[in-house]
Amino acid sequence: MADEGRNLIEILDENIPIDITKYINYVHSPQCGAIATFGGTTRDTFEGKTVLELRYEAYVPMAIRCIKSICSSARSSWDLNSIAVGHRLGPVPVGETSVFIAISAIHRADALDACKFMIDEVKASVPIWKKEVYTNGEVWKENSEFMERREELGKEGNGKVCCGKKVLVEERHEKRGCCAGKVKVNDIVDS
Question: Is 184 known as a binding-site position?
Fold first, then answer.
């Protein structure tokens, strides 16, 4: 079966919980000695504020394309059997799972490394937005992975500038990732 056929990617509509067993069963295989998983859940506090829920929005067609690209990048770096990724949209109450990743491989190192890569890339580059709702307000949040990627692009000493009047975008093949990891941004000066 083709690699893409061994990927299960779902962006779940509002109020549909993630079925963790479904994803683990999808990646399970008798030839694999490892299944690595990551589950991101809503915690009850953040920086001393009481969290009521998280709310997620996404541009679903692009999110799915980006996750497919991340899966391809993972497969090019590790020997993987199956990948399953699920992400909820809408409100996700405290204690519930908002994102789940399951990866199977013959060896645990491949599964574990690829799982960490997958969640880091999903958080850094997939167009899924999160709002934290507190007892005393709410705020849209940028993931730290996204912020680190933006800072990396904006460092002046490396010839990359994030926020100029004009930018030149070039293909870059040495980094893995969906969207941001494949571009190099350079400042273009008006003549």
Answer: no
Whole-angstrom CA distances from 115 to 32, 36, 50, 104, 191 are 15, 6, 29, 9, 46
Q: Which residues 6+ apart lie within 8 Å of 50 measured at CB? A: 44, 134, 135, 136
Is 53 annotated in some ligand binding site?
no
Give the whole-angstrom CA distance, residue 14 versus residue 11.
10
131 is in an annotated binding site: yes
Determine whether the annotation assigns residue 176 to a binding site: no
89-118 as b/e, with b when 16 or more CB fall inside 10 Å?
A: bebbeeeebbbbbbbbbeeeebbbbbbebb
Both tokens assigned to 1: 């079966």
pLDDT in tens, 5-39: 699 999 999 999 999 999 999 999 999 999 999 99
